[in-house]
Amino acid sequence: MINDKTRWNEKYLKNPPVSEEAIETLKKFYHLSSGNKALDIACGFGRNAKFLAKVGFLVDAVDISDVALEKLSKTENINTIVADLDEYEIPKKSYDLIVCSYYLNRRLFPFIKEGLKPGGVVIYETFLLSENIKPFKEEYLLRVNELLGLFYDFHIIYYEEKEIVREDGKHVPVASIAARSRTCS
Questions:
Q1: Which of 7-21, 52-66, 154-168 has the lowest average pLDDT?
Q2: pTM here?
Q3: What is the mean pLDDT of residues 94-119?
Q4: What does the pLDDT read at residue 1?
Q5: Which 3-state string (H, E, C) describes the chain?
């Protein structure tokens, strides 16, 4: 069986990035962060990390693929971290902003919450369970309102479930959230 690192490295070698644009939710809400230390989880080629670095953040960009991180490692204000997200633990109270797009590993949610400094902002966006999203495994897809429920103890700034059009023309549902951790722990 092919391991995750090999699989993702092969994917990134064969498929250059379709878009260099950060996700819209990040572009709309990054400014709500009161500091400049950010984490981009499952960053891939780093479109969100590059955006954050460009607007003044110091970014830790984490991904399992060293192929994807190779070029990103040369970008000013970005620290790349090659890590298996099935085992990675986000350092506690380390980030003013944490972003994750189009990756779901439910094990990470407690680490995301604990990784934010008091008043830190999380921006998360990924696919919802739908017939249109196959061949994704159900475990990698959110249920309706699940993302909202995962951050019930945060101040919700923005939440939306909507349909987007992917690069391949397929209509797929996604959930997006921007939320602030409570200032008291």
A1: 7-21
A2: 0.88
A3: 95
A4: 40
A5: CCCHHHHHHHHHHHCCCCCCCCCHHHHHHHHHCCCCEEEEECCCCCHHHHHHHHCCCEEEEEECCHHHHHHHCCCCCEEEEECCCCCCCCCCCCEEEEEEECCCCHHHHHHHHHHEEEEEEEEEEEEECCHHHCCCCHHHCECCCHHHHHCCCCEEEEEEEEEEECCCCCEEEEEEEEEECCCCC
